[in-house]
Write a structure and sequence with these properties.
The structure is a homodimer of 450-residue chains. Chain A is of the alpha+beta class and 450 residues long. Chain A has two domains: 274 residues, L-amino peptidase D-ALA esterase/amidase; 142 residues, Ubiquitin-like (UB roll) (Roll), CATH 3.10.20. Helix content of chain A is 33%, strand content 24%. Chain A is built from 13 helices and 16 strands. Chain A has a six-stranded mixed β-sheet, sandwiched between helices. The first copy, chain A, starts with 23 loop residues before the first strand and ends with a helix. In chain A, 64% of the residues are buried. At the A-B interface, helix 8, helix 9, helix 12 and helix 13 of A face helix 8, helix 9, helix 12 and helix 13 of B.
Chain lengths: 450, 450
């Protein structure tokens, strides 16, 4: 049989550590939103602001108050950015209450807290960005959170522990905090090489009744970049990483990724230097990919991380769609849980795959015309050219192949399963990350609240 | 609050019975495909053929051998129909083996069985249509099935039991056989009223490892209609019924619906009579809707049928998309299993809804231009206008409402839950059918085969 094409991988190595880049100070604390008394408020300040920021937000048509407020704030600090990028001095994340489906009153709550943090940080409210996660349909305890915000002076740290505390305070039902860090070298204005850190923390998508699968991430760097550069960099990276992660196919009202550059590393601005942009983008993608995989592995009830790598597709959008269809199939997810090399369910999922919506394709870098032409189309599949392998074992190549089922099943019990699919049609590659479907998922999500 | 709009419902009443319309003879028998010895071969012959037939097939890009053969046969008997309609003398359904992912050899198996049945029925192979369901990736036991086909003369019945036997032989893991029947009166050529029967049987979508969620249905009538008339009638009905049914979001390689008109009732041809077409379409839709709901209620592992009725959408396509998003959400399905009136998950699912692909919209009756313009777009939602009620209890109307949770939870334990959503935007209505997500689903689908 034809050898499966390897996926291109030129990403720098990342480590699972929360190294706080220069130019930020951070803390995680308890404001009293969660009944458990666990940390539920994270704040990140820009030391010598403002910092350039790019953001991606949920496309859910019922966005949370924080998402609505952020988009309005970014439109003020960078009117050309249409709410996608701008400038920021202070960021906060509350956990335990989504502040979604709370109407205009919920929006007023969020604005009031932004004003409080702005006063503390000595900036205007429009340079404050907020994220939230937790219970839907309840109001934020504004007085308690405002009280916490006015008493945190002196509690900020500039070390890695402070950023780890941020990751911890963002958690809802995550079993572990998620962090990833990469260092690359960029040119200084004098021409020397300067180390630049890209670090991210994230929460989700583990969830338990009645919380939602909100996915939030801070990605911070001390590189020097304009907001628009960051935004152009961020969107295709999110398309290849977080948007290729599926725990249960549901998208929360609050999903937010923030990419923030303080410029404190002393590098030259990267904006006019394609090589520097590529180097930083590689670091951001390595961090995003690591966080997305950590999140999929911690999917609610999950025991096994599923990675599906697709090659040979007509184009990358088709490859990503096929990979995502595989990790999103409840049938395949249940089969992986049973360590069952059920390739029929992989073939079925690939056969059902449809290229994403036009907006997703545009985010991934296609022109509006190209995106409209491709959106929603079935992924091209030739049954005779299709090849599937599971954990390195070829199981299908146009026809079912003979393989040692018991041996392969044993290999599927090690906490991670790699499924490779080659469509044998074109140069498109892509991957997606998911997790197995377990009884624990059903139990946790059907538990009645009272 | 604004009263929720009732869904329009002008469908005739259906009963869950397998009344065989005139002009057909049928049987269900054991051919030896299933190891269990359960019935696994159904045959329906047209008494005085050929009969007009319209069909919808899976859009999975890896269609089973039967689907590929049927499309080729229909293209021969009605070249203008592009494989969507034609003429038929004999139909068969095998259960226990999908004959999918079996390559050209599997297609040859299917053609060989069609030729055997054609010989028995005194017709040519192109007037034979076949459906199959069961294990993927294995070959049909051709000799055994051919043997059964050559020994069934004299076993056919023209009574309701014969059609019930067809429903029984189509089952794989269905816990009960599904049937629905409606009688309407149409004009005879002499101007009198003649009773016309529309009856359907269906299997799926219960599944257990390693079988797939194949959905198959015969809908038979003794009305007199041309294939193209049936095809124009069938596509929007399938869009409103079976395509709005979701057990787990996966579409099999074999899904097939056949609508067959024998003309044996003695009515005038309906094709040029809009009133007669509408009457027959109403009967077909009532049968299709009943079968789709029976299938959702019997979803694998399911304990509760979920119906989501959406009104106030921008148009019907948007309403159907929103309804389908609700019944497809694993989070909502798990909440219903726990009798948890978690309206936040309903709002979240509505906010994520996207209008279907262009091909689905075209099938539902939109022009290709209109379908392309709407495909994949987010469903328009105004958070302030959104209203949700569960089992008649209003729970959200722009803001969360007060309600008695314990009482509502009790009402959700009765085997069926009706969720009504009003978007408050336009005249569009639609509904969708699903079932709860249970631990049993995970257990059955993660059981290792060996």
């Amino acid at each position: 049989m034809r050898a499966l094409e390897p996926l291109p991988s030129h990403l720098p190595a990342s480590e699972q550590a929360a190294r706080l880049p220069r130019g930020f100070e951070a803390l995680g604390t308890t404001a009293g939103i969660k009944e458990s008394g666990a940390p539920d408020l994270a704040v990140v300040l820009v030391t010598d602001g403002p910092a350039a920021i790019a953001a991606t937000f949920t496309t859910n048509r019922l966005p949370a108050a924080a998402v609505r407020m952020n988009q309005a704030h970014l439109e003020v600090t960078a009117p050309a950015g249409e709410g996608r990028y701008g400038w920021v001095d202070a960021m906060m994340c509350t956990s335990g209450c989504t502040n979604a489906a709370t109407g205009e009153a919920g929006l007023a709550d969020q604005r009031s807290l932004a004003a409080t943090l702005a006063t503390h940080a000595g900036t205007q409210p429009e340079r404050v960005i907020a994220m939230s996660t937790g219970l839907i349909g309840t109001r934020l305890p504004v007085e308690r959170v405002a009280g916490a915000l006015t008493s945190i002076a002196g509690s900020f740290g500039t070390d890695d522990q402070a950023f780890a505390d941020v990751a911890d305070a963002m958690r809802t039902t995550d079993s572990v905090a998620k962090a990833a860090s990469v260092t690359v070298e960029l040119r200084s204005p004098e021409g020397g090489l300067v180390p630049v850190t890209v670090s991210g923390v994230a929460k989700g998508v583990g969830m338990i009744h009645p919380e939602m699968a909100t996915m939030l991430s801070f990605v911070l760097t001390d590189a020097d970049a304009q907001p628009e550069t960051l935004s152009r960099m961020l969107r295709p990276i999110v398309a290849r990483t977080w948007n290729q992660t599926s725990i249960d196919g549901d998208q929360s009202t609050n999903d937010t990724v923030l990419l923030v550059a303080s410029g404190a590393s002393g590098t030259a601005p990267i904006d006019e230097d394609p090589q520097a942009v590529a180097a930083l983008a590689g670091a951001v993608e390595a961090v995003a990919r690591s966080l997305a995989r950590q999140q999929a592995a911690d999917g609610e009830g999950a025991t096994t991380l599923i990675t599906c790598a697709v090659s040979g597709a007509a184009d990358d959008a088709a490859a990503r769609a096929a990979a995502r269809a595989v990790v999103s199939s409840d049938l395949l997810k249940a089969a992986v849980h049973g360590a069952d090399p059920n390739w029929g369910r992989i073939a079925m999922a690939v056969g059902n795959a449809r290229v994403a919506s036009a907006s997703t394709l545009e985010a991934a870098g296609l022109t509006p015309e190209a995106a409209a032409a491709r959106a929603g189309h079935a992924v091209e599949v030739d049954p005779d050219a299709l090849q599937i392998d599971i954990e390195g074992t070829p199981v299908f190549a146009g026809v079912p192949l003979e393989y040692e089922e018991g041996t392969l099943s044993e290999r599927m019990k090690r906490g991670e399963v790699l499924i490779r699919v080659d469509l044998g049609i074109g140069p498109g590659v892509g991957e997606a990350f998911g997790c197995d479907l377990t009884q624990e998922y059903v139990i946790e999500n059907s538990e009645y609240s009272s």
